[in-house]
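ingest -> validate -> predict -> emit
validate: passed (alphabet ok, no gaps, 379 aa)
predict: started
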Amino acid sequence: MNQGFSFTLHATDGAARRGEIFTPRGTIRTPAFMPVGTAATVKAMFVKDVRAAGADIVLGNVYHLMLRPGAERVARLGGLHRFMNWPYPILTDSGGFQVMSLAKLRKLDESGVTFQSHIDGSRHHLSPERSMEIQHLLGSDIQMQFDECVRLPCSDAEAERAMRLSLRWAERSRKAFREEAGRAVFGIVQGGACKPLRIESAKALAEMDFHGLAVGGLAVGEPQEVMLDMLETTLPHLPVEKPRYLMGVGTPDDIIQAVARGVDMFDCVMPTRAGRHGLAYTRFGKVNLRNSRHAEDMRPLDPESTCPATRDYSRAYLHHLVKAGEILGMMLLTQANVAYYQDLMAGLRTAISEGRLNDFIAETREGWTRGEGMNSTLG
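emit:
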């Protein structure tokens, strides 16, 4: 039992769950979407606006922070919460995915991964023990085991090799985790798109006394139906009383489908990245502000939104900012997208509590199909 960290399930609707994760730094309402603060910042947003949008927790990245400014430096400066002026919960990923996807000239063996930085070519070694040490130095509330994530599609043999290595690294990560009141460590299920491997990984991790469990290695190139199939295979083998986190997911439709299958936590760069490239997520679907059709459209993205960026600026103005390459355009659309994702999670939580999740999903999807050309009343 981890004093200061707990998960309480309040309601279910089918497989979907609404609950709360309690930490000393605040309560995380689930299902939860965690904005990605890769390098100690949610790109193009002030932390006060991230909080105002409804976020209870943000994510930081071991790989990026170890390279710049360095975990030891962050620790000397008071830890990641103080460094980025976010006093609420933070989850740090282990760095494994970024090592595989970003680092140059990497070499993997049983001990860990040796790689060259994509920034300056400097050499580093990341092991389960070093990953946990970095996360301890950063001071995150939820820490992730070090794992190997393979891209899909891949052979079952490759998926099995990576899954078994990740299980051995899970044991080392769990042992290296420094037990502190209110701090938690999650294991990560791997196994590619192979059902027996996913089940074996889930069962093995469930026996390792992690505080929560994540499903990794999805949304890495496979179709949505494969991702959902793997979730349906995996989730029944995870402890009901612990939070379940689907890493790196995803689109709004990915999220609602995963919530319906029992996932509690999500993260993805999609809303912030899309905002920086002129794309807005709304209850009427995606709106591409680069499109010239918006050049003289005085309507806001959504007049009923509580988000100022969504409600108070015309599409014409947002189009102008995007076409002009103005930083304000990136900021406003990122804020609008993060707010939409948080509104979606709030709607899912309410729907689960009221036992009307299927109706909520149907209504949400119907809204998306109306698209950019909905009538002027937006009714």
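The first strand starts at residue 6 and ends at 13.
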